[in-house]
Design goal:
Chain A has about 250 residues and is mainly alpha-helical. Chain A has 2 domains: about 5-180, no CATH class; about 185-245. Chain A has helices at about 5-40, 45-55, 60-70, 75-85, 90-95, 105-110, 115-130, 135-155, 165-180, 185-205, 210-245. Chain B has 2 domains: about 1-30; about 30-115. The longest helix of chain B has 26 residues, at about 5-30. Helix content of chain B is about 80%, strand content about 0%. Classes of the chains: A mainly alpha (about 250), B mainly alpha (about 110).
């Protein structure tokens, strides 16, 4: 590796460590029980390690052993997990606006390592400014390495350690809540949040649990658009009327 | 889990995941999107995190007859604590600590007292 690139990479990992720390802490807490669950479903440590590297999904890696233990057919497992992960398309769509001047290879590597948590952290840093795709990728890689190690250790330890799963998963709920609190408090975002929450509740009530997150988020975005265009039309109309008075 | 079944699951979920993650980034990067689409992009974080939180906190099964109301009320109380901490501090570390601690308190302390 040429020295210049090596320095750049080292610099990115240095800058990314602090923003990545909350994710690292969360993934340690969440990865151990995920590995334990995987061991219960009869998965070997190397299966867990490969799955964490190639697939890399918190929700997905909880679903696979759970559905396997419940004796679901493989096709049902793949379809359900795929459905839950459709929300990743939203993150890619959102992050694409910051990848304009990077190559296809880097954009692919970056996109392939995005999770709910690292999306939130990197999105905030991108908006702050002075944040490159390389820095963001470094956050992703810290997160992924932690996740892989934590899951694998959990699987090896098996049932020797007991982390109450309700508490472990609430660590991530808390992180999502914090990322939500960091969004700008505008009337439009208020509509988006209310519609998304309502959308998820309705989806789960009618039995669409698998797609609830994706559908709920899309409903939120659509309602935000409708509300936003009504507001801008009202503003335009008000200014026209003012013009008419004169 | 037999190795053959593992490999089928691994390939199936990983290919789907890779497409969902990478396709939008590679296809949309560097394009000048219409203003309406740009506005919609700005709503994605709020919508996604609200949906994730709602999905974690709401489970229809918690409302079935005979289920302890604390099953859903406990996390809801803890979530309110986190929301207050989140708005005040904007700190992820404090949110995680306050969330897990307050959920542990509402889940375990009533049993200790009674």
């Amino acid at each position: 590796m040429p020295e210049e690139i090596e320095v750049e990479v080292r610099e990115a990992f240095k800058r990314a460590l602090k923003p990545a720390l909350p994710i690292i802490a969360g993934y340690i807490v969440l990865g151990l029980p995920c590995g334990i669950l995987s061991a219960t479903a009869g998965m070997s440590w190397w299966m867990v390690a490969i799955l964490s590297i190639v697939f890399y999904s918190g929700a997905g890696q909880y679903m696979i052993p759970n559905m396997w233990l419940a004796a679901n057919p493989i096709t049902a497992i793949i379809a359900s997990v795929g459905l839950v992960n459709t929300r990743q398309m939203l993150y890619g769509t959102s992050l694409s606006q910051f990848c304009g001047n990077v190559g296809k290879g880097l954009a692919t590597f970056f996109g392939a390592t995005v999770t709910d948590e690292s999306f939130g952290v990197n999105y905030a840093k991108f908006l702050e400014g002075d944040w490159s795709v390389k820095d963001a990728l470094a956050v992703n890689l810290y997160s992924q390495t932690t996740w892989m190690l934590s899951c694998t250790v959990g699987c090896i330890l098996g049932s020797a350690v007991a982390v109450p799963s309700a508490l472990a998963s609430f660590a991530m709920t808390s992180l999502f809540l914090c990322l939500l609190c960091m969004q700008p408090t505008t009337a439009e975002n208020g509509v988006v949040v209310a519609a998304a929450v309502l959308g998820v509740v309705v989806c789960k009530l009618v039995g669409l649990s698998g797609a609830a997150i994706f559908l709920g988020a899309v409903i939120g975005i659509v309602c935000g658009m409708l509300f936003g265009s009504r507001v801008s039309r009202a503003v335009k109309q008000a200014s026209c009327e003012k013009g008419g008075d004169r | 889990m037999p190795i053959k079944d593992f490999l089928i699951i691994l390939v199936g979920v990983s290919v789907l995941m890779f497409v969902c993650r990478v396709a939008p980034v590679v296809l949309l990067k560097g394009r000048d999107l219409p203003d309406g689409v740009k506005r919609a992009l700005g709503y994605i974080p709020a919508a996604a995190f609200a949906a994730l939180v709602a999905n974690d906190l709401f489970d229809p099964a918690d409302f079935a007859a005979g289920v302890d109301p604390m099953t859903w009320a406990g996390p809801l109380i803890a979530a309110v604590v986190v929301a207050v901490v989140g708005f005040k501090t904007k700190s992820m570390a404090w949110c995680i600590v306050s969330g897990v601690v307050s959920l542990a308190i509402v889940m375990y302390v009533p049993d200790l007292i009674m």
